[in-house]
Amino acid sequence: MQQFDSGVSVTGSGSAKLETTLSNDDLSKIVETSDEWIATRTGIRQRHIAGPQDSLRSLAAEAAKNAIAMANLAPVDIDLIILATSTPDDLFGTASQVQVEIGAFRAAAFDLTAACSGFIFALVTAAQYIRTGVYKNIVVIGADLLSRWTDWGDRRTCVLFGDGAGAVVVQADQRDRLLGFELCSDGTLNHCLNLTYHSESQPLTGDITVHSGRFAPITMNGREVYRFAVSKVPEVIEKALFHAGLSTSDIRWLLLHQANQRILEAVAQRLQVPLERVISNMARHGNTSAASIPIALDEAVRDSRIQPGDIVASSGFGAGLTWGAAIFEWG
């Protein structure tokens, strides 16, 4: 087996652009709500919505291409594509479609599902392939089209979710810049946030019966998810920092899953991280599930807030329930 440097670096970022936006005022024409009600409770002012011409494949491919270009690579240099998503175009997988779309013909590709934690889980998974010398250049994509599975008559959930895609390139490096991580799951809390399968019995022949059905829209217990996040996210970040041999004072940027502005502020307060070091694009994008962290990262890199050498503490949390954190040095 060919061996590569065991260190891991995040060298490029990218995201996809969606032109259509759905504002809080727009939503107030659909359900009983208002811009003030949504903004004060979530921090969200608008969200981007995929149109009929958009697909998860196309958005994920656009984000991946932009990340590959920033890393000064060509698609044929990519060894592996990991697509974190809960809303694939095809339940059998969409990553291989992205592989074709971007021309990464040497790359293996697979989907990974961990909902809003998906990008962090995929990033850590990619690192293991590099550290064991299997692959050298990996694209990690977080992409979700939650508008496909939103009940637009449910005020508790429809105000939260949007669509999007973001990506990073992870490369082998002599110096390891993925400094620490921690991943967690608790299936006993699965009922708090669901996109469940509903089936009906269909007799076939004799005593043989099959079950066929569909997936229902998203349901969520917002109060329980909030309690879970403000309790578990600071804890998992502190564990990842411990593995990295760092403390909260070493964090230059706190980059959390963009679920709710109040969660971001509560976690920052628990960790004693100043709010000016918390990256938030909540107002413009809403909750884009696995896409939220890489989109926010890409925006902060491209507007020069995140500089080479900056220590970023990132955490994803959500359905499963799953949560995790990764501490990395950008560049």
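That was protein one. Protein two is written in the same sequence-then-structure order:
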Amino acid sequence: MKRVVIGLSGGVDSSVAAYLLKQQSYDLIALFMVNWHERIGAVTSACTWEEDALIAKMVAKKLDIPFHIVDLSKDYKKRVVDYMFSEYKAGRTPNPDVLCNREIKFDAFLKEALKFNADFVATGHYCQKAEIIKNGKVIHQLLAGEDPNKDQSYFLCQLNQDQLSKAMFPIGHLLKPDVRKIAREQSLPTAERKDSQGICFVGKVDLPTFLQQQLQPITGNIIEIPADFMAKKKQVENIEKNYPKLCFPFPYKPWNGKIVGEHQGAHFYTIGQRKGLNIGGYKEPLFVLGTDVSRNIIYVGEGKNHPGLFRPGLFISKNEIHWLREDLQMNVGDKLEYDIRIRYRQPLEKGTIHINEDGAYILFKNEQRGITSGQFAAWYDGKELIGSGVIA
């Protein structure tokens, strides 16, 4: 009998995953992760890890499976939170959920699970897994979840073959309403519990307050970039047909626009952000077009269709390219079309990956809004996630 350790979080998804595994007669053990103790910056402390652990324990008791708690807070702080702070300080916008899966759930937590002699580690992710044989070797495939509104394969875009070989996703073939229905039918304690929100394992937080734990407020200028200025610049770039140039953020300068306000730190803002600017008197809202942390300047534009919000491509340095499907790795000079996703729940967009000596240049069929440095771009072939990388 195969032994499976289920990461039981106190939410409905992992609870139903545990129930389904129990029904399949696996030797099942529940393991709850404590990854965050502090409450600084939290919008509410109503939902703490203690409450989550208590509910997870109730689920385990209901299902009659052993329950254990493991404290991974030191790993989480070092490998996720400290990384977040360093990225924001550098003017990039990280994705803690992707890091949490790569560094914690399928690394630190996986190692803890193996101490229980686990054959597999299961989670409540909405994604699926398959296997193929290629040249006599087993290759593990990460596939999108059946529910298009809940597919979480993007969050697992940095996993490798070894991590995926030990992963199980029991609810990946289900729609979210079906998961709720099963939880109600089995009277699971999490049946009506709301889904968690906010930073992975930290919860719903006020991000500026959270970041101010290490990043100090510094007053700087907000500069508005006129739409016609960007339209002219982009025309010149497209005529040049220089895709490396098109794949990097536009290098705004203070003299490209006019000062319209002040902010408390460029590192607190991200591309496409609307809230927190506190500037009135415009017909349409202002959006962040770019940030310059060295000069402590935020560049903004009026309207959601401002040309500065859109870019035809992005760049991933060669050290940041990750192939989940190592057998499909592209070489210098290769060019292939894939379906690309640059943020969670964003529709897949057609794009061509060009591999150069310095990295991957991705050109989209249609310009993309809000491409953000520090986020992850992931590429798919149909439902299968092939690779990913950090946007420069």
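Confidence is low (pLDDT under 50) at residues 41-46. Keep this in mind for the problem set.
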